[in-house]
């Protein structure tokens, strides 16, 4: 078995949490009290887990085989295991041992912790003993959940990590870069910089491990911390004891060089749509959508129009999977044992002038079930004078000259440009005009401090051999370079 063990990035938290819930719902919930199930559900809510992850109060590891998440372990900086689950169909194959060993090595080598601790489900005590842990007291009960506190001393002098090597992302603007930026955008400048340096260096660990099944014959199904992961412990804000180093490079939407005119007469604020259906026990429905709000335009009707469009653009996925579900979404929900409808949207205003606004949205979530984890990027380019939304076909003359220039720039931006060879020039032209080819080529463009970028958010079907996961690629033009291709659109007049 070739198993990759690595730290999880923020978009990967959702798949991990739903793996956790799947195993919990199948193996633990039936024997738990309603109070215990409710406490567990509260603990694994994405918004809470994401928050503590951003604060570095939880470090998530994932075990991947051929790109499929097989198990996950969440570790506190003090060496406490908060979550530890292996997918039901992969239990008994040594994956739990691999994850545990990795956490042990990491605790010793990078956290310099002398102990690993856990509050174990009583049925998992024997498994933890096989891993080298020991009970420190008898069975305890809290919030309707029974657990056994366990610990293991870490030998700081006998730790070595095997086969460490990093993997380059397929494309620079992929999900890895996105979430690196999210991390730094939510954390203080001086908060534990040295520890972040260590984390950043180790995010792409890749362990090629043998199958441990021959050496450890136990059923590694779940290992759950029953004190909500934190108990009475409060993580020091600067637990690393030093200072963070600033990241050398950021990517994703947060790397777009914004241009915000300081002299605009309006204000940019933020609003959000939050929804959690905590009544349904058989499925998960949760949305957190943030979007910008413009206040102070001279024309109140235009202001309302602009804000309605900005919100509608942010809510597109929620509308498609929940408010007005597409037929395929309905079919997935019916077919799934544990349906999941989730969507989380972040945005960035990358261009704002007195008369024009450009917003980039990035959302990720589940569209029916655990197998339908998706990420999307959308853009909205709108006039603040009358609420007109400009599309690529409106602002650029899609001539052969432009298409050849654009295609050359796209190829230089993409590390793997085979997707551009799959379609002829006419097909790509139609895609830029709005024909997405069954959703594969979603046209996007945005303005920033350097000019304009035009390209695609790629969305192949998950069973398509060309599927590359979450990828968006844009071709950059300076304003001088795009001038020869510009149409007579009023956009260019608004930009001056």
Question: How would you portray this structure in words?
Answer:
The structure is a single chain. With 496 residues, the chain is an alpha+beta fold. The protein folds into 2 domains: 4-224, Aminopeptidase, CATH 3.40.630; 257-494, Fervidobacterium nodosum Rt17-B1 like (Heat Shock Protein 90, 2-Layer Sandwich), CATH 3.30.565.40. The chain is built from 16 helices and 18 strands. The strands form 3 sheets. Strands 1, 2, 3, 4, 5, 6, 7, 8 and 9 form a 9-stranded mixed beta sheet that branches. Strands 10, 11, 12, 13, 14 and 15 form a 6-stranded mixed beta sheet that branches. Strand 14 (356-368) and strand 15 (373-383) form a beta hairpin. Helix 1 (10-28) packs across helix 3. Mean pLDDT is 76; it is low at 157-251.
Short description:
The chain has 496 residues and is an alpha+beta fold.
What are the key terms here?
single chain; 496 residues; alpha+beta; Heat Shock Protein 90; six-stranded mixed β-sheet; 16 helices; elongated
CATH H level, superfamily name of the largest domain: Fervidobacterium nodosum Rt17-B1 like
Number of strands: 18
Determine the N-to-C terminus distance: 60 Å
Strand content: 25-35%
Write down the overall mean pLDDT. 76
Helix content: 25-40%
CATH architecture of the largest domain: 2-Layer Sandwich
The CATH class of the largest domain is: Alpha Beta
> Could you list the spans in which at least 5 consecutive residues all have pLDDT below 50?
157-251
The helix-and-strand class reads alpha+beta
Shape: elongated
Oligomer: single chain
Named CATH topology of the largest domain: Heat Shock Protein 90
How would a textbook summarize the main sheet?
9 strands, mixed
Total helices: the number is 16
Tally the structural domains: 2
Rg is: 24 Å
